[in-house]
């Protein structure tokens, strides 16, 4: 019986062991980003996204993308070409945010509809268009971007689609009405009236090489990514990103991802102890406005003598807790300044009860009742224990400890030292003048107008209507 030959027999080299770290970055799980994780249920690197979209039978293409940027076997890192390094940096530094609609179950119907749109788009191209393929599986990168912009306008019911790749484009009819100088473009039915740097970047040579690396069927992957997903490019090595494609992140609602339990837990682990009405609404920054009617048109606060009281009102929290040596009062004031950190009603995430106020926001001047309810809710059975109550009153969230406490103490000291009346007299002085006409009116007339002029010390030139009114008042007084 013959003995089997070893693997090294016959002069054949032994099989090379597969590198364990050749696709460590590509096969990693989704990236956890504190901001993007609240907007998109799935966030991953561009490399990982492309690998997840390639079919499992495309082993060569998957191997090329996963090993791109790694030095060849047995060579140093300097042997990698600069083009491959740039492309590998693009794959690893670019993030892709996948919205919930991108993973819809009816993807086959969406693919058929997209195929019909491709046929319609190719038929609308002018006859003299050159260097255009527009055959399934053989799209150029520039043609893909043009089709994406055209389809976004086609499916949009508004004047301009809410998409970064559509900035600077208009429909031809709207363009002629506005009288803007036309810029030649290859997208049928659209004109460009200013440059779109996002389109220029996606049409650049680096993205063209990435499209070529995907091979057959890569055009559909690129279309799906540009149409359905959001792309974020890294700004150096600072950990910051700017959006390159997709619906602007500023127009997305944070509440759209609240149905994802994992995203909610990763975003904020402390909301489980808060009432549901405190996290039921997430307002955009531009929706939080100052109530001008309360600030500029409210009635002035009066003192006991009926005069105007300048500065903070007596019910203001800084005036109700004047003891600078009491740390519990400092924490109590911090509950008014940072209500969201303490789990109280706030303008960012809380709904306004229309039964309490007709304004768009509540009046947070007095919070004692709400703070007491929050203490009873958190302490529950230990609310009668003095030790637990003192511990609760002195508790400060981790985010507010240190310099924030010192800043609030400084605010309290400066408020006590500040004389608002003297500041008003210094920066807004009022000259008190009195003439013979004013003294005569003060002596003879009992009307309210001249008395108000004498009290405030403000003299204005009387108009003709005021002269007639004062004359009639003088006649009625003499009678």
Automatic annotation (TrEMBL):
Residues 461-473 have a biased composition (Polar residues). InterPro entries: Telomerase_RT. The keyword Transferase applies. Coiled coil: none annotated. One of its GO terms (cellular component) is telomerase catalytic core complex. It is found in: Nucleus; Chromosome, Telomere. It comes from the Eukaryota. Gene3D superfamilies: 1.10.132.70. One of its GO terms (biological process) is telomere maintenance via telomerase. Residues 1-25, 460-479 are annotated as: Disordered. Its main location: nucleus. Belongs to the reverse transcriptase family. Telomerase subfamily. This is Telomerase reverse transcriptase. It comes from Trematosphaeria pertusa.
